[in-house]
Amino acid sequence: MDNRPVCVFDSGLGGLTAVRILRKLMPNENIVYFGDTGRMPYGGRSAAQIRLIAQQNLDFAQSFGVKAIIAACGTISSNAADLLLACPVKTVGVLAPGVRELAQTGKKRLGVIATATSIKSGSFQRELSALAPDAEVCALACPDFVPMIESGRYLPSDPEVRATVARSLSELKERKTEALLLGCTHYGLIADAIRDFLGDEVELIGAADAAARELCAYIEGASAFGDGGSEEYYTSGSIADFEALAPLMLGYELKSAVNHVPPFPLEVL
Fold first, then answer.
1. Catalytic residue positions, numbered
2. How far apart are CA 35 and CA 231, in angstroms?
3. SS3 sequence, the chain?
4. What was the pLDDT predicted at 269?
5. Which residue spans within the chain are E strands per DSSP?
6. How far from the centroid of its chain's Cα atoms is residue 177's Cα?
């Protein structure tokens, strides 16, 4: 047994969807979650700031003596993949696992949606070109999704959600996209609304789900299963907001109190 925790971090609460999947796949693992809500969103920040944030979050995660980390943020995964790879603790981003699963669908008209900075980096597109060179890829930035979801609006019956999805994804529908990667962990919360708009025949791949599955495979391969099942939560923003929205992301009630961490300084502008 290896009861060292797994740490999951994200810019906000979207990474809790990865925690939800981990809990289903490995119910006895101890998990630490850090939601950097005091500095979100990452999607509009410079590449230099994102890389600094990535290193700070990795350092914070390692301070818990973890055995593995999920960087549950498409923006970090697409702009600081080298930092994740260089981390001395096994670290899984959401870009590579999600892209692999998208390519493995065998579909020829593929889509990727993520934050503006993620799409601008071209990382998703390059990875897909390497794994599915014959596919037609449409990559779209969806800057309105994260603020909408973090405000608690995600139900497919919500007119604002439906309108935002339709406005943001109209190009994917016009291109008759066959499989779509939800390249930001938040987007899984509006998967039903996306499916309603694009049609049930479009295969959706969740970045958080793919990352959780890859981490589980690593822990299984290393025979490093835990026998605890505890959860600790940290946020650099409002504890009240975290407590209000986290159960929606997790699908169950919080297992412990939420701890506040002052936002780490950003010297790089």
1. 73, 184
2. 13
3. CCCCCEEEEECCCCCHHHHHHHHHHCCCCCEEEEECCCCCCCCCCCHHHHHHHHHHHHHHHHCCCCCEEEECCHHHHHHCHHHHHHCCCEEECCHHHHHHHHHCCCCCEEEEEECHHHHHHCHHHHHHHHHCCCCEEEEEECCCHHHHHHCCCCCCCCHHHHHHHHHHHHHHHHCCCCEEEECCHHHHHHHHHHHHHHCCCCEEEEHHHHHHHHHHHHHHHCCCCCCCCCEEEEECCCHHHHHHHHHHHHCCCCCCCEEECCCCCCCCC
4. 44
5. 6-10, 31-35, 68-71, 90-92, 109-114, 136-141, 179-182, 203-206, 231-235, 258-260
6. 22
Q: Which amino acid, 188?
A: G
- Is the CB of residue 5 less than 8 Å from the CB of residue 22? no
179: tokens are 């499989």
Q: Count Cα neighbours of 61 within 13 Å in the Cβ-side half-sphere.
A: 31
Q: Kindly indicate the confidence band of residue 248, based on its pLDDT and cuts at 50, 70 and 90.
A: confident
C-alpha to C-alpha distance for 248 and 138, rounded to whole angstroms? 30
Q: How many CA atoms lie within 13 A of 211 on its CB side?
A: 35
The first and second tokens of residue 36, run together, are: 């950097």
> Mean pLDDT, to the nearest integer, of 120-149?
93
Q: pTM above 0.85?
A: yes
Residue 35 main-chain phi, psi, to 5 deg: -105, 110
